[in-house]
Amino acid sequence: MHFHRHLIAAAVYALAALPLAAQELGTPEGDILLTIDGAITETNDDGRAVFDRAMLEALGPVTFETETTWTEGVQTFTGVELATLLEAVGATGDSIAATAINDYAVDIPREDWVEGGPIVAYLRNGEEMPVRDKGPLWVVYPFDASEDYQTEVIYSRSIWQLDRITVAE
Questions:
Q1: Beta bridge partners of 63
Q2: Which pTM value belongs to this model?
Q3: First CA to last CA distance, the chain
């Protein structure tokens, strides 16, 4: 009997410790910053997944420093890894169309959805990014981490003012 209590306690602890990706998405309470649709299995808004800032933060913040071609000097970015975000919505496609507020769109292939890869940044140098300064969301790669991230193709995928993602079927 004592063993069963420990087993149950361990199971409860393990379930409580699961990342948001394995749990229900929840409902945004703040302004919706990001909408994800297409080939996803987890939704919270009529076939789509919508996120406010708190929901993005709950997925686990990642911070890195890097220089960009659009800013001066080393910048500190904080956000959720693209891989984590797409896992949270159960993305099943091979690419995404990331679209900005002004409808500019880029395709980002599944090979970029890796741990240590790009993040959907919601902070730059510890501050929220206003729309007029590439915010509120910006797909940022850790450019300084690898020469593989210092190509025109990768730079073109670094979309700012991101507000929606469609996962290709």
A1: 78
A2: 0.85
A3: 49
Closest CA to 53 of 122, 120, 126, 139: 122
Q: What is the pLDDT of residues 66-84, one digit of tens each?
A: 999 999 999 999 999 999 9
Q: How far is CA 150 from each of CA 93, 103, 108, 156, rounded to the nearest angstrom?
A: 25, 25, 15, 11
Q: What structural domains does the chain harbor?
A: 25-167 (3.90.420.10)
CA–CA dist 112, 93 (Å, integer) = 13
Task: Return phi, psi of residue 164, to 5°.
Answer: -155, 150
Question: What SS3 state is found at 154?
Answer: helix
| Backbone angles phi and psi of 137, in degrees to 5 | -125, 140
